[in-house]
Records
---
Amino acid sequence: MVRAIPAGLALVALSLVGCASSPPPPRPSARPFDDVRRVIVVPSGTESAFAVVEYSSEPGRTFDEILKWIPPWSPYQAVLRPAAQLVHRGINWALEADRAATATSRLQGLSPRSVVAESVARTLETTGWFDEVRFVEREPSAEERRRADAIVRVAVPTWGLVRVRDVEAGLLSGFADVRGQMAMPRTGVVLWEESQDVTSPEQIPVDTFLRDRDFARQEMIVVLERAGQRLANELLYSRSAGR
Amino acid sequence: MRRRRPASLAALVLGVLAASGCGVKTAGLDVRYPEAGVNRSLLASAPPRRVEMLPVVDRRADTKRIGTREGGDIVTSRPVTDIVGEALLLEVKKNGHTVTADRRDVVLAGAVEEFRLDVVGSYSSTQYVGRVVLAVTLADPRTGETLLIRRYVGISRRVVDKDSDNGWRDVMDVALARTMHDFATDPELASVMTRRLTAFNP
């Protein structure tokens, strides 16, 4: 009985290790940067294309229903199934691309990375934590770099409309996937990096969005500004990380 | 006698596994806000205050579940109000304030208005959208006057392959973390906390 105790304990310990819950999401790289007082915020990267993502299950689901009638041993199954998937993707890609093209024409002149970067600068400024926060549209000059403690670069790899609930057809939410990086000029040391998927809390009718230029612009500006605040809040939250 | 030993060992193992809550699959989603990830932030710029935290209330339209997936309800392993209340407590304490019901400078009341996980199924993948809406009210303990009402909205969105079963489990953790980070970095909240007169200096 005494011999069985260590084996039993080992078994219990192993079983607990094996079923431990998944590790928490990786935290963004950050180091304390309390001493950063003068910041320049600049848009970075290229302008991204507007996307409309509806996650439609049709016509793929209908294809699957039809394929159920074909016997599993039939050679047609092996050929038709991948073909159905390709057709599903093709049809949805074409539909979404058409809507994205219409939306892009409504949003002409709107630079997502500039709106987000400006919002980041505004949010940082209102905290009073920095002596100077400047938003510039283009890469800072040598003189501007010399005066700054850090440069925050803001990119918007993806933005657009996305379906966020399964039940309401025709209602989508604005979204912006954004990236930020704070680095020291001269040394290039990266002080902070973060990516955020930002989604509007509201759902809007996609038809109105595609029809009404002013409505579309206002909605996307609100989402992009929210993305800037979100990114700035994460920067502020990391400012004294570990202290 | 010899035959009973393996049986008792197996019973012991099963008992420990059941007690640890992981040997038997439960429907509860373990939403967490780990203390190790909590930082001092803008809320710490206010001088240390004595804060009475009222129990967080549940103002959700549907309090039975946070979502549905594959025909079944998604529920949390602990009450949503406990999860959010603990997160608020961690943030307030980490930022240098004392949580007490005695000689308080300010009363903080939290209400969960939304805590949901939406699942959007497509042909080959599934999108999960976690959403937490927390209303926070600061009040003067002496007069009962409302000093500030704020709403913090944390949303997290993730696309997971239809074949994957685990990629969605921490979507609510991220949504909650974003809500709490917005709370801790809110300049208006910090400003109201700064302006509060302490019980020692009325």
Note: Chain B is about 25% helix and 30% strand.
---
Amino acid sequence: MVPAMALIGVFLVFPALWTLYLALTNYRLTGLSAAHPSFVGASNYSQAITGGDFAHSLVITLVYVFGSAAIGQCVLGFALAWKFREWRSRFRRVVEALVIVAWIIPSSVVAYLWIAYLQGSIGPLVESGTLDTVLGVHTNWLSQFPLLSLVIFNIWRGTAFSMLLFGAALQSIPPSYLEAAKLAGASGWQQLRDVVLPRTKGYVLTTLLLVSLWTFNDFTPYLLTGGGPSNQTEVLPVYVYQQAFQQGSLGYGAAISVVMLLINLLIALVYIRMLKERR
Amino acid sequence: MAATDSPGSPGALRSPGPKGSAGRPARPVNWAVRAVAGRVSFYFFVALVTVFFALPLTWLVLAPFEAHPTFVAGLSQPTLSNFATIFDDPGVLVSLRNSLILALATMVVVVACAAFAAYALSRVRIAGRDIMLYVLLLFSSVVSGSAAMVPLFLLVFDLHLINSLTGVILVLAGGLLPAAIFILKDFMDSVPTSYEESARVFGASPFQILRDIVSPLVRPGLAVIAVWAIVQVWGNFLIPFILLRSSSLTPGAVEIYSFYTSGGSVNLALISTFSLIYTIPVVVMYLFVQKRYGFRFHGGIKR
């Protein structure tokens, strides 16, 4: 038990606490303040609030999280689990395997896969990707619709988790309940609302929580777009990376990290509250 | 398929009275039409989903076998030569070796530490144990990622482990441990304590109990943790990306990124072939766990 707690303590709990201190300094990657960082109080935070970059990143991140995780992955994952629940066919396993493969492939592989997929022809020398060829258009998705592309990408990437968890949730409902509702003439929609949702609320909230947290902290957008074009996809993790490691402002990066941690905490608290209310 | 029924006909749940067909002769026809329409829209949904998920994957599957791959998935000149030439690239074998070292070493650390910790947590009653585990689990899914990259970098730097595989292994293990303990504790809880008590009666030491009684019983759990840890490390990009500097240490996940960002035109044959090679172990291990142990890892949560 001791080694595990030591590792967790040193590499998980301590960094989180240290961030709180670092955020109050002008620590830099190189130069004078790298050797002798000085205490600057809350100036990193005021810089974050008054400069527009942070607010911009925050808005983009929220769009990314709500669009791709809370709505996209959860709705599609639930739809798949619900529609497939009684489907006895070999093809069902094929479809599910496709969804799961999209989820387990390493993220740098997935990132380039989508760069190739969404490639638009820039000139006569560069051909379009598969999507443009199939649709018969000439759109450079990642530069013309960067945020939308990322949202769609992340739905593709992460729906498997919701599908698997909701699949397990639906199995926990006794089939007789649904049969009874069906005999009573309930439509599919009514069965969902009156039988399924009340009994799977815990699963739904847990899934929402985890998927939102993962997406909020997801660094994969960096692999696809590097934050560009012109900051349009600079979600908070990418913003922290660029500020801390490319601009070298470790202190400022730490301050943004603290804000991210607080938002994570807030998301978690909201869901835990909702979970408690249910009981 | 009921799911495509119209959301109309309100109150059907509340008025489940007998739907006598005597008064409404059109009813059976209506049902048949609805059933067919439901079937059709169901398969339409299946087709859409299949295309949505399969289309991006086609390139990964086809391009490595294409003599001159483009961005469009296709197979005009099938060949296996890409797999032979890819190893001419100096980074390929080195990065695969690094990935393997990182994945296996992290797996060993995680499995060993998690096994002892989960056993202790499962057998000893500590107040607030479950809450602590749950908090740590939430914490790990947040902190081990991007929100802590600055302190993790500085911590590893101060420990003089920057640009070393050891630093990456320790950071990754610390991040994976809470979830590993969480999963493993479930398995430990299902082992009856009476086995251990009778072993103790016969004079077995605590270590012998753990080795001879508990570990065989929780072997599926250990295997799941092991595979899960390997898959997580294999695909992790951020931690090695910020902690490693020299190209002789970078794992495959970072190497792929450098293939398409290091400037010049991207070698599509190289990147697609390496991507496929890098993907296969993960998929194989996933299938292995699913076949052998019958359940899927839910990204750290088993519920």
Note: Residues 2-59 of chain B form one domain.
---
Amino acid sequence: MTAPLLSAEGLFKHFPLRGGLFGRRAGKVHALNGIDFAIWPGRTLALVGESGCGKTTAARAVAGLIRPDAGRLLFRGKDVATASGNDRKSARRAMQMVFQDPYGSLNPRLNVNAIVAEPLVIHGIGDGAARRDRVAEVLAQVGIDPRDGERYPHEFSGGQRQRIAIARALAPEPELIIADEPLSALDVSIQSQVLNLLKDIQAARGLAFLFITHDLAVVDYFADEVAVMYLGHIVERAPRAALFAAPRHPYTRTLLAAAPRPGGGKRRPGAVPAGEVPSPIDPPTGCPFHPRCPRAVSACRETMPILSGGDHAFACHNPEPVP
Amino acid sequence: MTDIVRPTAPPDGMLILFARRFADHRLALASLVVLLALALLAAAAPAAEWLLGVSANSVNLTIRFAPPSLAHPFGTDELGRDLLVRLLYGGRISLAVGIAAALASAVIGTIIGLLAGYYGGKLDALLMRLTDGVIALPLLPLLIVLAAVDLTKIGLPAELARDPDVSLYRMVVIIALVSWTTVARLVRGATLSVREREFVLAAAACGAGPLRIMAVHILPNVVSPIIVATTLSVGNVILLESVLSFLGLGIQPPIASWGNMLTGAQELIWSAPQLVFWPGALIFATVIAFNFLGDGMQDALDPRAITR
Amino acid sequence: MIRYILQRLGESAAVIALMSFVIYALIGLMPGDPIDLMINSDPRLTPADAARLRAVYGLDRPLVDRYLSWAAAAIGGDFGNSRLHVRPVLDVMPGFLLNTVKLMGLSFILSVAIAIPAGVIAARRQNSRLDHVINLLCFAGISVPVFWLALMLIILFSVMMPILPASGIASVGGGGGIMDAARHLVLPVATLTIFSVGSYTRFVRAAMIEVLRQDYIRTARAKGAGPSRIVWVHALRNAMIPVVTVIALSFGTLFSGALITETMFAYPGMGKLIYDSIMGNDYNMALVTLLFATAVTLAANLLADLAYAWLDPRISYAAGEGARP
């Protein structure tokens, strides 16, 4: 069993809310409540959940944009927070991020060449000529004509900009790509193109992916492992096939049931949860899903279930039976 | 791999749109022309000297207060110096000092605004308190005190302290010290909004440090309001310089500035009102031109905003 | 809200304290200290005498010490004596202050009285010829150098057409009376008014345009209210919010304008007092008058913020940072 490329252990992040007189804190957003996951080289972990579950926070924590209040991030076994400067820099270089909004993630004042070259400049990779070559190389890989490198982002369509963003992520030869809902802002017809591009790139370069999404169809196509998040907790974590075939956590069940399936047809069996997702500022006691859970028992209100179960782990006092 | 895709047809560049809207604003366009003409004339001051065969500083008490003539198209002043040439040289100085001070205060304001907007938190609070404090000060009395400071008392050797060239730098410095607040607030506001945009996050995720983010990502995206604000501030700066020079505290003779050409003008109003009229009229024209120019730029930049 | 006021007052006090130190230090850097002046006027003083006098007056002590003893006396109400007026500073100031209040008060009222109608008319007839003319005049007002304006007015009305006095507040040789005082006020008030009316008009115009665009104006129109009623009642009241703020904030510039105007017309007000005391090395007076000007400007800013918060119920200063515009 190879060692994981990246592992997250017990990540906590609570954002203070500023309110009241003179910024006195008026509560916290419990974004991450002790999550663990691991990503192996060349494999894709999909992080799924509804809005507000904390998946974007998790992605940003991995990317180093957010510092967790507690917990560790280990890259190749080394704790990123306590690593030496060089180790930290190489970890940064090896993990690149692609964002959701293709219109906002590119600096409108820089041309495409400059945008794609930026990671190379920041990490001091290569000299001018080598960088130019590398930029042209990755642009071609994502399907952008390198001759258009002089142009500016506003001259490209949404799908093309996302390709440029992907090229930027590929430039420093990373090992892990953190993709935060990279398809959500694109037109449906473009989504499949970009998704296929990502799949090709992964195959060609052996890249690992942390893929954030709420679209289960994408998960089905792209992911090797899936972790389901709810209100800052991972409630189920399993290989893709196992998750789709035999979801154990009731929330996973409802997600799968609600997902539109191509070809129409009847919904899969599974009750639709009542009510709305509670606010992450004031989460319920015990298991966060218990107010909406069709299988809730008294223990669910009192104690927080622990994520356990080896390869197919879930956090539930009363899980779905194995079919 | 996937097919190579080409970009869609590019829309009109931002610059062209801006230029078109600006040209619609006739007053601004006229002001631009006027200012360019003034700048050219000022630059040509030595040529005028040579053409007329006079010097800006050549005192000739026999021809004091001479009326306009071929030799002296605008007449002479109270020391017999040619008025036209002095006006042109004065223009040089006033324009140069005005633009330099405006640029200097823009630099100071930009740095403060960037730091406050980017870092936020305590640094932001501190810098904004500082800014509010400076805004709340009565400008002219403070400038008078600063201008009256005896430089020898802070260690500058006496000859340097009395040197008129030093008075030029001093003007730029003290005016810049009090005029940076508008730009600082503007830049802070713009930085706060740009900071949240995803390309800034992307750069941070890549590993970019604060300096790179501020210089490469934030600054180029806040530059347009800075340019407009700076243009608008030149007029104010020129007014401040001329007042201080008028009071004898600014640019020291024999260097001519439009302001110090009016020092002691109160005695002249009875004998030679034209000597009082011209320097002030030129200040007036220049300042109003810069104001129209800045206003036009502001409209061109954001036609929906109500600026006037 | 009370907490906010107290916090702002505290900050203002801190600013004034800080400024007092800064100004004290700056004034110390001005050419000629009191001993030098004494030496200049009495050449019999030897360097030994000078040194002794310095020690007596405590002028050889470090800056901070001297400042602290000044501050201690000031808090106790003793601001020292004016060198030029040979009287305690606090005795001299009120007279000058009153004159300035007259000047600034009259100009302010006049400016506002002109600015509001002009701004409203310009806003109602946006982009018409009248609007363009008003706009041009406003630009002229804010671009003219005040001291030159004063000179031009003097030339026009005292030299070319000798109908108004060029300086002072009363004619030499008695005369007195309201008419005489009024005649002396005309040119200074006119100067200061021209100086400020341009910017006030622009503020009013901009605020009115913004308000007239609002949806609730359209609603009032739809309900059948005639155009005049809309403009004058609804819009004006709401436009006053930013106008009040900005006008109060421009108090500082009015002060600077007053300084020049008073100096040009030899009008014995605070502005002239500040100028004369700085140029005349009257340290105590300069210090106190500068601090006074600072305090007044700070107070105007505070009042503007409070008025803004009071007039616009959407603004709440209880939300901590981020609520201030």
Note: Chain B touches chain A at residues 1-8, 10-11, 197-199, 201-208, 212, 216-217, 220-221 (CB under 8 Å).
---
Amino acid sequence: MGIITFYPLLYQTWMSFTDFGVQNLRTGAPAPNWVGLDQYFKIFSNDISGIPNFDFWRILAFNLFWAFSNVIIHVILGVAIAILLNTKGLRGRRIYRAIFILPVVIPPIIVATVWRNMFDQTNGAVNLLIAALLRQPPGSVDIAWLTDPGSPIPFFSLLPLSFFALLIANTWLGWPLNAVVATGALQSIPGDLYEAAEMDGAGAWQKFRTVTLPFLRPAMLPYAIYGFVITFNLFYLSYFMTNGGPFGRTELLVTQAYRLVNEQRLYALAAAFSVVMFFILLGLTLVTNRLGKATASYAD
Amino acid sequence: MTTSIARPLAQAAAVTNRRRRRPAWGRQALLQALCLFVTFTVLFPILWILSIALDPRNIARPDSLNIIPPGANLDAFVRAIQRPTENPVSFLELAFNSFKLATSTALVSVAFGVSAAYAFSRLHFRFRQVLMIAVLGVLMLPAVATITPLFVLLNSFKLGTFSLRDSIPGVAMALISGALPFAIWNLKGYLDTIPKDLEEAAAVDGASRNQSFIRIILPLAMPAIAVTAFLGFVAGWTDFYFSWMFLTKPADFTLTMALYGMVGGYAATTPWNVLSAFAILVALPVSLVYLVFQRYIVGGLAVGGVKG
């Protein structure tokens, strides 16, 4: 089993040091030439002739920012709504819970396509909704969510408008699962702790901080880390919704790797890319592992 | 003695009762308003999909904010059920295949996951740290990276014409291999929060390790187990990569495969209304399953066995 897992990895590493191209793909074809670290230099110095506007560091920075911002928003929203649903005396709780899980349940490609339709410039639901809220005629609001090359935050050119479109779509998709995990965690909090805190005169915020939060943390932290990894590698939203646009500014590492293999057929370059991605993910794993140990769980 | 305390106590109780009863419905209204707002944001895109599904014009982009377009009918749903794909496989067969994958992923990943999580959480053995980091590392790989190795591995098991790769159990194994690390990790995190004193108390009473696992830990971990099982179910039901890559016999196809098969040639030839109708039909069973799981997730178990 280990051989099956590690052999492709080793093969890929070997590939990354060559100039493996389409001509080397078939069995019995000539072997590729060894070019050493050439492919890696190409990646790090943004020198790939087939792809315009390729900037490895920008993609990496965008990818990290995308993952961080998404996870933070999802966790906060998920916890808040879980607490909302958990308050005593709320009617129709089960119905709400069943409805809130729906985004998770829809197949991802439909999610991406529908949100792309919704952010359409002329007929998209989002623009229509904004126009309706502002009491303007339906055609008047046409924000080019997915194609506007400018950035709404002037000095932070990393985030085009399509980033926010992606953020909204992914948040819609992301908070229900966080809410479900948070609900599971909230159930394990004994009620007497709240009463004890109240008797000591704790206000609502203090109760949350001293009773709820320590119970939430051991449950939410693994899930937040997992959510970070998933968001980091979230292929289908970026590929199907914005297609990496405008001009490749919402590319993630995974979509870029996919393009290198399927569209550009630069197999050796893609192999080098994958090796780089592996080390980035490995670094993230070690960092999050350190972080995971640093939190004190209730039982210690 | 008692009478001198009784009256002030009664008066205090009356005051707090009055204060507690009055704003009950105001608070309820506020909570309901918040919940309804969240419901709206959740449902809006879904209603959008419904609107495309009901629309007889088969357009890719609705041109107004109506939920129910003019001339709405259920044609698309009927067509989705009658002939999901070009292949000779009925909707029920597709659904049953998806169901098999989903339930096996859920059950096996939870069964192995909770046992492994218990071992990681409570037992001390060599290489525990290394194994935990290995589990975490596998978690970080995108699923796409594991397709080729699993393909080769499952392909190597052949008995006559039966190939493990080209079968539902094979795909289930691939899915489980992906769901298991998450299950282990999630459950370990939860099991860590269960105080060890409970098991020690049980051990004092003469319970063996197995007994304390089955009778004490499992019921207490029910919310986390329910969450993990549900996530495993969703992973199996909505899986696309593995079933698309591994299965070739139409009788084995799953619902998501039929869905992706429809999005073949982009905008011009895609039957948007049938696609949307099919998507809704695919999404519904999982919400029903969630309704069932809710009871366990919100188990409301009182953890009060040992503490104070």
Note: The first helix of chain B runs from residue 2 to 21.
